[in-house]
Amino acid sequence: MSTQLAVAWTYSSNNNPDSFMNNARAADPAARRFLFGYSPAVAATTAVTRVAVFSPRSISSQWVRGPLWDSFWMLSALWLAPIIFWLAQGYSDPQSSPLDVFYFAVTALFWIGHRLCSTYLAYCTEAYRPLLRAQPIRFVVIPLIVTAACFAVFLPDDSALPWSREERLIALAIIDYAWVTYHFAAQHFGVLSLYRSRADRATCLQTRKLDRVFALTIGGLLVFVADLLAGAVAYQDEWIDRWPITQWIVSIQDPIRIIGTGALILMTGIMLFAEFRSRQWSLPRVLYIVGIAVMVGIALQPRSLFLFLVVWTSQHWIVATGLASRTPVREAAPKTSNPFRRALHELNIRPWAILLFLTALSILLLPLFEVEANRETGTYYGDRIFGAIATQLRTSSWVPALLALGFASGFVHYLLDRSVFRMSEPQVRVAAAGLLKRPA
Asked: Which of 26, 48, 80, 389 pairs with 254 at a CA distance of 20 to 30 A?
């Protein structure tokens, strides 16, 4: 899910010369920057003129699919949080509780599948095929360069480059940690923006800015602070712990947690107050805001980082998988007799089939990607399914290639997620019609 899921659709101007999109203010570069995204360069690539887009008046529901579907896929934080506390109850170490079995199941079903969602949408759907032709740099060239760079970093042995493989691993792991922290916060901003559009408030700049501040500060900065206090930042001892200020921060971690909790309550209160003041307030937005607050509240408590890890990652994976299953369902049939493309199309128009495909991939690829993911410490869930095969992978000569594959797939996922959900672009809104349009 990308930060560019900021405007799911805007008011159609085809028959309304006085609409916002034809207003002089909307044509101003500064207004376009606030409306369509962070980058002035991106906002300036397309003039804001009469564009055929989805009219919010055609969407009566504030939900992506419906209350039940959204409650499971989009608002999963609200049912995940009670489950993790219930499963960990009575155990001093939550990792030794039934919660570990639950997290094993969620990881096997959704982790790798979620990572491949945006790649699947970009390369395996008819809906996004026009974008591959129109924007080859973004969708093809850059992902290939990133993938090649990861393999170029890990395949040479220790003597081939000035840095050992371990040093290269640590450097990329730190980059990955920073990027994934932003990526998670960006998804929260995107979901809030999607629900804001469902409430017919896509053009509300004030709410959009408030969403962005909330997502980046609460879903990004406060999570980083919690990780720092828990010693959970990637290879923290190799960089952050060497800063003179780090020991002082750790020594006053209790006041910092109190201040962080206060900031969380304050920002959540501001978001809810602003939402309820709106004439078109959205129940799904309220529930999603509360879900973010609950998860970050768990992060700021010193009991166990594992509780937060479970709810934070599980929520992210489930949301991404759910959205991917809905996005291409309205794609047009391929104008070719190619049996492979026709078979993919038959899969793409059935959300349940996409879900089954992604979860099957997630299970099958689990031992391959765990080589990179559990590079420091952690449980290898793949061993519980594949046994000795998973263990042998971690000690084989394929380890450098598997490390490169893990990092490359993660980085490409972050890039493509931003591209396939860049709803500021008319072509992307057409491709994502299954997500934006109300089901028939």
From this structure: 80
53 in a structural domain? no
Does any domain span residue 23? no
Enclosing domain of residue 292: 63-436
In a domain, 21, yes or no: no
In a domain, 398, yes or no: yes
Which residues lie closer than 8 Å to 113 by C-beta, 6 or more apart?
Answer: 317, 321, 358, 359, 361, 362
Angle of CA points 37, 69, 277, to nearest 5°: 55
- Cα separation values, 65 from 8, 71, 330, 355, Å: 14, 10, 14, 15
Q: Which two tokens stand for residue 318?
A: 């489930």
Closest CA to 214 of 252, 270, 171, 172: 270
Q: Is the pLDDT of residue 341 over 60?
A: yes
**In 3-state terms, what secondary structure has residue 192?**
helix
Q: Which two tokens stand for residue 416?
A: 């493509």
Helix axes 244-251, 222-230, angle to 10 degrees: 90
- Rounded Cα distance, 75 and 322, in Å: 11
Global pTM?
A: 0.84
Question: In a 3-state reduction of DSSP, which class is residue 222?
Answer: helix
Q: CA–CA separation, 325 vs 316, rounded Å? A: 15
Q: What is the pLDDT of residue 10?
A: 33
- What confidence tens digit (pLDDT) does each residue in 240-280 have? 888 888 888 888 999 999 999 999 999 999 999 999 999 88
Which residue has 């299954």 as its token pair? Answer: 434
Q: How many structural domains is the chain composed of?
A: 1
